[in-house]
Specification:
There is one protein chain. The chain contains three helices and eight strands. The chain has 135 residues and is of the alpha+beta class. A hairpin with a 2-residue loop joins strand 7 (109-115) and strand 8. It has helices at residues 19-33, 83-96, 128-133, and strands spanning 5-8, 13-16, 42-50, 53-62, 68-74, 100-104, 109-115, 118-121. It has one domain: Alpha-Beta Complex (tt1808, chain A), CATH 3.90.1570.30. The longest helix has 15 residues, at 19-33.
């Protein structure tokens, strides 16, 4: 691996070490090591279509039956996690119908759980078993 690439364990290949990719790879490690998400139940750079537009979710966590459970939107560290970022994750949810949304820029991380037709903030990043209970 050269210094201008990072190994993505989910895609099983080296990828360009952009600031956003660095955050994505760091957060994959958080999901694996801190949240206990099984590697085989995660994918990165997941393509989807909403209307005529193609979108790509940074990280998608699946439940044990293979259904989408959590979508993670990663941004460069200098990008604020504002309403526009939350709206982007909500667009993905229109296709994925997840129970948990996570936004991170490597400096701040926010987690939300489904509540009725919307989402409410969680006080901490949920472990995988807790993500499963949010359904």
């Amino acid at each position: 691996m050269s210094t201008d690439t990072l190994f993505d364990p989910l895609r099983r290949k080296d990828v360009a070490a952009t600031p956003e990719e660095t955050v994505r790879q760091w957060f994959i490690g958080v999901l694996l090591n801190s949240c206990g998400v099984p590697r085989h139940l995660m994918m990165s750079e997941v393509s989807m279509k909403l209307g005529a537009k193609n979108w790509r979710a940074d990280i998608l966590v699946y439940d044990r039956a293979g259904a989408p459970l959590t979508v993670v939107e990663c941004k460069r560290p200098d990008v604020a996690l504002d309403a526009a970022v939350a709206a982007q994750a909500m667009r993905y949810n229109q296709v994925l119908n997840v129970s948990c949304l996570i936004l991170t820029n490597g400096k701040a991380t926010y987690a939300y759980r489904r509540s009725g037709d919307g989402f409410e903030p969680l006080s901490e990043l949920p472990a995988y078993d807790k993500m499963l209970c949010l359904r």
